[in-house]
Protein backbone atom coordinates (compact mmCIF):
# COMPACT_ATOMS: atom_id res chain seq x y z
CA UNK A 1 0.00 0.00 0.00
CA UNK A 2 1.21 3.48 -0.78
CA UNK A 3 -0.42 6.68 0.39
CA UNK A 4 0.78 10.09 -0.60
CA UNK A 5 -0.29 13.61 0.22
CA UNK A 6 0.97 16.40 -1.97
CA UNK A 7 0.73 20.13 -1.50
CA UNK A 8 1.95 21.47 -4.79
CA UNK A 9 2.53 25.14 -4.12
CA UNK A 10 2.38 27.25 -7.22
CA UNK A 11 2.64 30.61 -5.46
CA UNK A 12 4.10 32.39 -7.16
CA UNK A 13 3.66 30.27 -10.26
CA UNK A 14 4.15 33.05 -12.73
CA UNK A 15 5.06 33.41 -16.34
CA UNK A 16 5.58 36.80 -17.90
CA UNK A 17 5.26 37.16 -21.62
CA UNK A 18 5.28 40.53 -23.35
CA UNK A 19 2.22 41.24 -25.48
CA UNK A 20 3.03 43.99 -27.92
CA UNK A 21 0.42 46.49 -29.04
CA UNK A 22 1.03 45.95 -32.72
CA UNK A 23 0.20 42.25 -32.26
CA UNK A 24 -3.03 42.68 -30.33
CA UNK A 25 -5.22 43.05 -33.41
CA UNK A 26 -3.97 39.71 -34.73
CA UNK A 27 -4.26 37.83 -31.46
CA UNK A 28 -5.74 34.36 -31.85
CA UNK A 29 -8.66 33.79 -29.48
CA UNK A 30 -10.39 30.59 -28.50
CA UNK A 31 -14.13 30.15 -28.88
CA UNK A 32 -15.69 31.49 -25.68
CA UNK A 33 -18.13 28.60 -25.43
CA UNK A 34 -15.24 26.21 -24.78
CA UNK A 35 -14.67 27.48 -21.27
CA UNK A 36 -12.93 24.33 -20.08
CA UNK A 37 -9.80 24.73 -22.23
CA UNK A 38 -6.76 25.54 -20.10
CA UNK A 39 -4.71 27.54 -22.59
CA UNK A 40 -5.03 31.31 -22.21
CA UNK A 41 -7.36 33.25 -24.49
CA UNK A 42 -4.40 35.09 -26.01
CA UNK A 43 -2.46 32.18 -27.42
CA UNK A 44 0.58 34.28 -28.26
CA UNK A 45 1.24 34.53 -24.51
CA UNK A 46 1.86 30.77 -24.17
CA UNK A 47 5.58 30.18 -23.41
CA UNK A 48 7.28 27.53 -25.49
CA UNK A 49 5.37 25.92 -28.33
CA UNK A 50 1.84 24.59 -28.55
CA UNK A 51 -0.51 22.92 -30.99
CA UNK A 52 -4.30 22.68 -31.06
CA UNK A 53 -6.27 19.98 -32.83
CA UNK A 54 -9.59 21.74 -33.35
CA UNK A 55 -13.08 20.24 -33.42
CA UNK A 56 -13.25 21.03 -37.13
CA UNK A 57 -10.08 19.03 -37.75
CA UNK A 58 -11.35 16.12 -35.67
CA UNK A 59 -14.64 16.11 -37.57
CA UNK A 60 -12.84 16.20 -40.92
CA UNK A 61 -10.34 13.43 -40.15
CA UNK A 62 -12.60 11.18 -38.03
CA UNK A 63 -9.62 9.60 -36.23
CA UNK A 64 -10.03 6.02 -35.06
CA UNK A 65 -7.51 6.31 -32.24
CA UNK A 66 -5.38 8.82 -30.33
CA UNK A 67 -2.48 7.93 -32.64
CA UNK A 68 -4.47 9.18 -35.62
CA UNK A 69 -5.80 12.23 -33.76
CA UNK A 70 -2.28 13.40 -32.85
CA UNK A 71 -0.63 12.17 -36.04
CA UNK A 72 -0.05 15.66 -37.46
CA UNK A 73 1.21 17.27 -34.25
CA UNK A 74 4.99 17.85 -34.52
CA UNK A 75 7.13 16.20 -31.86
CA UNK A 76 4.44 13.81 -30.61
CA UNK A 77 5.13 10.08 -30.85
CA UNK A 78 2.24 7.70 -30.20
CA UNK A 79 3.23 4.03 -30.06
CA UNK A 80 0.25 1.75 -30.65
CA UNK A 81 1.78 -1.68 -30.21
CA UNK A 82 -0.73 -3.58 -28.08
CA UNK A 83 -4.19 -3.10 -29.60
CA UNK A 84 -5.71 -1.43 -32.68
CA UNK A 85 -8.09 0.76 -30.69
CA UNK A 86 -5.29 2.45 -28.77
CA UNK A 87 -6.62 1.44 -25.35
CA UNK A 88 -3.10 1.28 -23.94
CA UNK A 89 -1.72 4.81 -24.26
CA UNK A 90 1.98 5.17 -25.02
CA UNK A 91 2.68 8.81 -25.87
CA UNK A 92 6.07 10.50 -25.90
CA UNK A 93 6.96 14.08 -26.78
CA UNK A 94 10.29 15.26 -28.15
CA UNK A 95 12.08 11.95 -27.75
CA UNK A 96 10.86 11.02 -24.27
CA UNK A 97 10.08 7.37 -23.53
CA UNK A 98 6.45 6.80 -24.57
CA UNK A 99 5.95 3.78 -22.28
CA UNK A 100 2.57 4.30 -20.55
CA UNK A 101 2.89 8.06 -21.25
CA UNK A 102 4.79 8.42 -17.98
CA UNK A 103 6.66 11.56 -19.09
CA UNK A 104 3.76 13.40 -20.72
CA UNK A 105 0.96 14.76 -18.57
CA UNK A 106 -2.55 13.86 -19.76
CA UNK A 107 -5.50 16.01 -18.69
CA UNK A 108 -9.21 16.29 -19.41
CA UNK A 109 -10.51 19.83 -18.96
CA UNK A 110 -7.50 20.41 -16.70
CA UNK A 111 -8.03 17.29 -14.54
CA UNK A 112 -5.17 14.73 -14.36
CA UNK A 113 -5.91 11.37 -16.00
CA UNK A 114 -3.10 9.13 -14.74
CA UNK A 115 -3.83 6.24 -12.39
CA UNK A 116 -2.00 8.26 -9.74
CA UNK A 117 -0.51 11.53 -11.07
CA UNK A 118 2.31 11.74 -8.50
CA UNK A 119 2.86 8.18 -7.23
CA UNK A 120 2.24 6.07 -10.36
CA UNK A 121 2.15 8.24 -13.49
CA UNK A 122 0.97 5.64 -15.98
CA UNK A 123 -1.88 5.95 -18.43
CA UNK A 124 -4.53 3.36 -19.18
CA UNK A 125 -7.27 5.83 -20.04
CA UNK A 126 -8.03 8.83 -22.22
CA UNK A 127 -11.49 10.19 -23.07
CA UNK A 128 -13.27 8.59 -26.01
CA UNK A 129 -12.70 10.81 -29.04
CA UNK A 130 -16.44 11.02 -29.75
CA UNK A 131 -16.86 13.44 -26.85
CA UNK A 132 -13.66 15.44 -27.36
CA UNK A 133 -14.06 18.93 -28.84
CA UNK A 134 -10.42 19.98 -28.95
CA UNK A 135 -6.96 18.67 -28.04
CA UNK A 136 -4.36 21.09 -26.63
CA UNK A 137 -0.67 20.14 -26.73
CA UNK A 138 2.03 22.18 -24.95
CA UNK A 139 5.77 21.60 -25.36
CA UNK A 140 8.60 23.62 -23.90
CA UNK A 141 8.59 25.94 -20.89
CA UNK A 142 4.82 26.46 -20.87
CA UNK A 143 4.21 22.92 -19.60
CA UNK A 144 5.48 23.67 -16.07
CA UNK A 145 2.15 25.37 -15.32
CA UNK A 146 0.27 22.10 -15.33
CA UNK A 147 2.50 19.45 -13.61
CA UNK A 148 3.37 16.93 -12.45
CA UNK A 149 5.11 14.65 -14.98
CA UNK A 150 5.51 17.28 -17.67
CA UNK A 151 9.11 16.54 -18.68
CA UNK A 152 7.92 15.71 -22.17
CA UNK A 153 4.92 18.00 -22.36
CA UNK A 154 1.20 18.30 -21.63
CA UNK A 155 -1.86 17.12 -23.56
CA UNK A 156 -5.30 18.37 -22.53
CA UNK A 157 -8.48 16.83 -23.95
CA UNK A 158 -11.26 19.43 -23.95
CA UNK A 159 -14.71 17.89 -23.74
CA UNK A 160 -17.50 19.18 -25.94
CA UNK A 161 -19.70 21.92 -24.39
CA UNK A 162 -23.31 21.42 -23.35
CA UNK A 163 -26.00 22.71 -25.75
CA UNK A 164 -26.96 26.39 -25.52
CA UNK A 165 -30.22 26.53 -27.48
CA UNK A 166 -32.79 23.86 -26.65
CA UNK A 167 -32.49 20.13 -27.21
CA UNK A 168 -29.62 18.64 -29.18
CA UNK A 169 -28.40 15.12 -29.71
CA UNK A 170 -26.96 12.57 -32.07
CA UNK A 171 -26.63 8.84 -32.58
CA UNK A 172 -23.83 7.24 -34.58
CA UNK A 173 -22.64 3.74 -35.34
CA UNK A 174 -19.50 2.40 -36.98
CA UNK A 175 -18.45 -1.08 -37.98
CA UNK A 176 -15.48 -2.90 -39.41
CA UNK A 177 -13.78 -6.22 -39.88
CA UNK A 178 -12.88 -8.58 -37.04
CA UNK A 179 -16.41 -8.06 -35.67
CA UNK A 180 -15.68 -4.47 -34.64
CA UNK A 181 -18.53 -2.09 -33.93
CA UNK A 182 -18.91 1.19 -32.08
CA UNK A 183 -21.99 3.04 -30.83
CA UNK A 184 -22.30 6.61 -29.57
CA UNK A 185 -25.41 8.35 -28.29
CA UNK A 186 -25.48 11.95 -27.11
CA UNK A 187 -28.38 14.06 -25.85
CA UNK A 188 -28.56 17.37 -24.05
CA UNK A 189 -30.54 20.50 -23.39
CA UNK A 190 -29.48 24.06 -22.74
CA UNK A 191 -30.51 27.70 -22.45
CA UNK A 192 -28.74 30.93 -21.59
CA UNK A 193 -28.86 29.83 -17.95
CA UNK A 194 -26.98 26.59 -18.60
CA UNK A 195 -27.71 23.02 -19.56
CA UNK A 196 -26.74 19.36 -19.38
CA UNK A 197 -25.45 16.65 -21.69
CA UNK A 198 -25.25 12.85 -21.52
CA UNK A 199 -22.83 10.70 -23.53
CA UNK A 200 -22.93 6.90 -23.86
CA UNK A 201 -20.24 5.08 -25.85
CA UNK A 202 -19.60 1.38 -26.44
CA UNK A 203 -16.96 -0.31 -28.59
CA UNK A 204 -16.35 -4.00 -29.06
CA UNK A 205 -14.35 -6.22 -31.39
CA UNK A 206 -12.02 -9.17 -31.84
CA UNK A 207 -8.83 -7.20 -32.42
CA UNK A 208 -6.23 -8.06 -35.04
CA UNK A 209 -4.46 -10.99 -33.37
CA UNK A 210 -6.27 -14.15 -32.32
CA UNK A 211 -7.82 -14.15 -28.83
CA UNK A 212 -7.57 -10.35 -28.59
CA UNK A 213 -11.21 -9.47 -27.94
CA UNK A 214 -12.03 -6.15 -26.27
CA UNK A 215 -15.16 -4.55 -24.83
CA UNK A 216 -15.14 -0.90 -23.76
CA UNK A 217 -17.91 1.39 -22.54
CA UNK A 218 -18.01 4.93 -21.17
CA UNK A 219 -20.82 7.07 -19.75
CA UNK A 220 -20.54 10.77 -18.97
CA UNK A 221 -22.92 13.36 -17.52
CA UNK A 222 -21.95 17.02 -17.84
CA UNK A 223 -23.82 20.06 -16.59
CA UNK A 224 -23.26 23.81 -16.73
CA UNK A 225 -24.84 26.65 -14.76
CA UNK A 226 -24.25 30.26 -15.78
CA UNK A 227 -24.58 31.92 -12.38
CA UNK A 228 -24.04 35.42 -13.79
CA UNK A 229 -22.57 36.87 -16.96
CA UNK A 230 -19.14 36.52 -15.32
CA UNK A 231 -19.50 33.29 -13.32
CA UNK A 232 -19.93 29.75 -14.61
CA UNK A 233 -20.19 26.46 -12.73
CA UNK A 234 -19.42 23.20 -14.58
CA UNK A 235 -19.87 19.70 -13.15
CA UNK A 236 -19.01 16.39 -14.76
CA UNK A 237 -19.16 12.75 -13.65
CA UNK A 238 -17.93 9.77 -15.64
CA UNK A 239 -17.77 5.99 -15.62
CA UNK A 240 -15.43 3.90 -17.77
CA UNK A 241 -15.02 0.14 -18.05
CA UNK A 242 -12.67 -1.95 -20.16
CA UNK A 243 -12.49 -5.72 -20.49
CA UNK A 244 -9.89 -6.87 -22.98
CA UNK A 245 -7.76 -9.89 -23.85
CA UNK A 246 -4.58 -8.19 -24.95
CA UNK A 247 -1.26 -10.04 -24.73
CA UNK A 248 2.18 -8.64 -24.06
CA UNK A 249 3.79 -11.62 -25.77
CA UNK A 250 5.40 -11.16 -29.15
CA UNK A 251 6.36 -13.54 -31.94
CA UNK A 252 9.70 -14.88 -33.05
CA UNK A 253 10.67 -15.01 -36.72
CA UNK A 254 9.51 -18.60 -37.17
CA UNK A 255 6.30 -17.94 -35.23
CA UNK A 256 5.55 -14.96 -37.46
CA UNK A 257 6.14 -16.91 -40.66
CA UNK A 258 3.85 -19.70 -39.47
CA UNK A 259 0.99 -17.39 -38.41
CA UNK A 260 1.50 -13.67 -37.93
CA UNK A 261 -1.89 -13.26 -36.25
CA UNK A 262 -1.44 -15.89 -33.56
CA UNK A 263 -1.43 -15.05 -29.85
CA UNK A 264 -1.27 -18.38 -28.01
CA UNK A 265 -1.48 -16.77 -24.56
CA UNK A 266 -4.44 -14.56 -25.50
CA UNK A 267 -7.11 -16.77 -23.94
CA UNK A 268 -5.38 -16.51 -20.57
CA UNK A 269 -4.19 -12.91 -20.76
CA UNK A 270 -6.69 -10.26 -19.75
CA UNK A 271 -6.84 -6.65 -18.66
CA UNK A 272 -9.77 -5.11 -16.79
CA UNK A 273 -10.09 -1.45 -15.86
CA UNK A 274 -12.88 0.38 -14.07
CA UNK A 275 -12.72 4.14 -13.51
CA UNK A 276 -15.11 6.55 -11.77
CA UNK A 277 -14.48 10.27 -11.80
CA UNK A 278 -16.00 13.61 -10.83
CA UNK A 279 -14.96 17.19 -11.53
CA UNK A 280 -16.34 20.54 -10.44
CA UNK A 281 -15.15 23.83 -11.96
CA UNK A 282 -15.95 27.42 -11.07
CA UNK A 283 -14.86 30.09 -13.53
CA UNK A 284 -15.09 33.73 -12.43
CA UNK A 285 -14.20 36.48 -14.89
CA UNK A 286 -13.56 39.16 -12.26
CA UNK A 287 -12.92 41.87 -14.83
CA UNK A 288 -11.31 42.25 -18.24
CA UNK A 289 -7.86 41.65 -16.74
CA UNK A 290 -8.47 39.02 -14.05
CA UNK A 291 -9.98 35.53 -14.12
CA UNK A 292 -10.19 33.10 -11.21
CA UNK A 293 -10.62 29.43 -12.11
CA UNK A 294 -11.08 26.82 -9.38
CA UNK A 295 -11.43 23.10 -9.88
CA UNK A 296 -12.00 20.16 -7.53
CA UNK A 297 -11.57 16.63 -8.83
CA UNK A 298 -11.80 13.00 -7.74
CA UNK A 299 -10.99 9.69 -9.44
CA UNK A 300 -11.25 6.09 -8.31
CA UNK A 301 -9.69 3.37 -10.47
CA UNK A 302 -9.26 -0.37 -10.25
CA UNK A 303 -7.23 -2.28 -12.80
CA UNK A 304 -6.32 -5.93 -12.76
CA UNK A 305 -4.47 -8.03 -15.28
CA UNK A 306 -3.05 -11.46 -15.92
CA UNK A 307 -0.20 -11.43 -18.38
CA UNK A 308 2.29 -13.98 -19.59
CA UNK A 309 5.65 -12.57 -20.62
CA UNK A 310 8.11 -13.86 -23.15
CA UNK A 311 11.54 -13.45 -24.67
CA UNK A 312 11.67 -12.27 -28.30
CA UNK A 313 13.02 -15.52 -29.71
CA UNK A 314 14.63 -18.48 -27.95
CA UNK A 315 18.06 -20.09 -28.34
CA UNK A 316 19.06 -23.73 -28.75
CA UNK A 317 21.76 -25.56 -26.78
CA UNK A 318 24.42 -24.22 -29.15
CA UNK A 319 23.21 -20.69 -28.41
CA UNK A 320 21.82 -20.22 -31.90
CA UNK A 321 18.62 -18.22 -32.31
CA UNK A 322 15.66 -20.47 -33.04
CA UNK A 323 13.24 -17.73 -34.10
CA UNK A 324 10.71 -19.27 -31.72
CA UNK A 325 9.20 -17.31 -28.84
CA UNK A 326 9.64 -18.76 -25.35
CA UNK A 327 7.59 -17.96 -22.27
CA UNK A 328 9.23 -16.64 -19.13
CA UNK A 329 8.23 -19.67 -17.05
CA UNK A 330 8.57 -22.32 -19.80
CA UNK A 331 11.90 -21.75 -21.49
CA UNK A 332 12.24 -24.96 -23.52
CA UNK A 333 14.72 -24.39 -26.38
CA UNK A 334 13.25 -25.13 -29.79
CA UNK A 335 9.75 -25.85 -28.48
CA UNK A 336 7.12 -23.69 -30.23
CA UNK A 337 4.95 -21.42 -28.12
CA UNK A 338 1.49 -23.00 -28.16
CA UNK A 339 -1.86 -22.45 -26.48
CA UNK A 340 -1.42 -25.67 -24.50
CA UNK A 341 1.98 -24.50 -23.32
CA UNK A 342 0.49 -21.15 -22.29
CA UNK A 343 -2.10 -22.95 -20.17
CA UNK A 344 0.64 -24.78 -18.27
CA UNK A 345 3.16 -21.98 -17.81
CA UNK A 346 1.32 -19.50 -15.61
CA UNK A 347 2.19 -15.82 -15.43
CA UNK A 348 1.72 -12.61 -13.43
CA UNK A 349 -1.49 -11.43 -11.80
CA UNK A 350 -1.42 -7.70 -10.98
CA UNK A 351 -4.45 -6.22 -9.17
CA UNK A 352 -4.08 -2.51 -8.38
CA UNK A 353 -6.41 0.13 -6.97
CA UNK A 354 -6.00 3.90 -7.01
CA UNK A 355 -7.92 6.91 -5.83
CA UNK A 356 -6.99 10.56 -5.67
CA UNK A 357 -8.58 13.93 -5.18
CA UNK A 358 -7.47 17.52 -5.27
CA UNK A 359 -8.40 21.17 -5.42
CA UNK A 360 -6.70 23.86 -7.48
CA UNK A 361 -7.50 27.58 -7.67
CA UNK A 362 -5.70 29.58 -10.35
CA UNK A 363 -5.71 33.34 -10.93
CA UNK A 364 -4.86 34.71 -14.39
CA UNK A 365 -3.87 38.38 -14.38
CA UNK A 366 -2.96 40.75 -17.19
CA UNK A 367 -0.74 43.57 -15.93
CA UNK A 368 1.74 46.30 -16.91
CA UNK A 369 4.48 45.62 -14.38
CA UNK A 370 7.73 47.41 -15.32
CA UNK A 371 5.81 49.14 -18.09
CA UNK A 372 5.45 45.95 -20.15
CA UNK A 373 2.08 44.38 -20.95
CA UNK A 374 2.32 40.86 -19.55
CA UNK A 375 0.32 37.93 -18.18
CA UNK A 376 0.81 36.17 -14.84
CA UNK A 377 -0.65 33.01 -13.33
CA UNK A 378 -0.79 32.43 -9.57
CA UNK A 379 -2.26 29.49 -7.72
CA UNK A 380 -1.72 26.29 -5.78
CA UNK A 381 -2.83 22.67 -5.80
CA UNK A 382 -3.61 20.37 -2.88
CA UNK A 383 -3.58 16.75 -4.00
CA UNK A 384 -3.95 13.48 -2.10
CA UNK A 385 -3.78 9.94 -3.44
CA UNK A 386 -3.93 6.36 -2.21
CA UNK A 387 -2.27 3.51 -4.12
CA UNK A 388 -2.50 -0.24 -3.55
CA UNK A 389 -0.32 -2.35 -5.86
CA UNK A 390 -0.05 -6.13 -5.72
CA UNK A 391 1.61 -8.74 -7.92
CA UNK A 392 1.44 -12.52 -7.81
CA UNK A 393 3.28 -15.09 -9.88
CA UNK A 394 1.57 -18.41 -10.32
CA UNK A 395 -0.53 -20.73 -12.40
CA UNK A 396 -2.72 -19.55 -15.24
CA UNK A 397 -5.78 -17.74 -13.92
Automatic annotation (TrEMBL):
Residues 1-21 form the signal peptide. GO terms for biological process: siderophore-iron import into cell. It holds the Pfam family Plug. Keywords: Cell outer membrane, Membrane, Receptor, Signal, Transmembrane, Transmembrane beta strand, Transport. GO terms for cellular component: cell outer membrane. It is a multi-pass membrane protein. Residues 43-153 form the TonB-dependent receptor plug domain. PROSITE patterns: TONB_DEPENDENT_REC_3. Its main location: membrane. InterPro entries: Beta-barrel_TonB_sf, Plug_dom, Plug_dom_sf, TonB-dep_rcpt-like. It is found in: Cell outer membrane. The keyword Isomerase does not apply. Belongs to the TonB-dependent receptor family. This is TonB-dependent receptor.
Amino acid sequence: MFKKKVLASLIPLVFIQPVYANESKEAIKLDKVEVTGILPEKLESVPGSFDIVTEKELEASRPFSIKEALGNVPGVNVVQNEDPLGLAQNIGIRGMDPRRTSRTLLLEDGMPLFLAPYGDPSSHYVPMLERVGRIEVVKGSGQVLYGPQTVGGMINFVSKPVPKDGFAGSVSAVGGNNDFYGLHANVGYGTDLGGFMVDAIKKEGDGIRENHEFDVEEYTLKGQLNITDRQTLIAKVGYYKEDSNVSETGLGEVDYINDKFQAPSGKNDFFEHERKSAQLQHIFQIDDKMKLSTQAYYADSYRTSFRQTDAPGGYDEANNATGITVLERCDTPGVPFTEAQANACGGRHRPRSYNYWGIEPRLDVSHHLFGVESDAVLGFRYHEEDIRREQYRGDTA
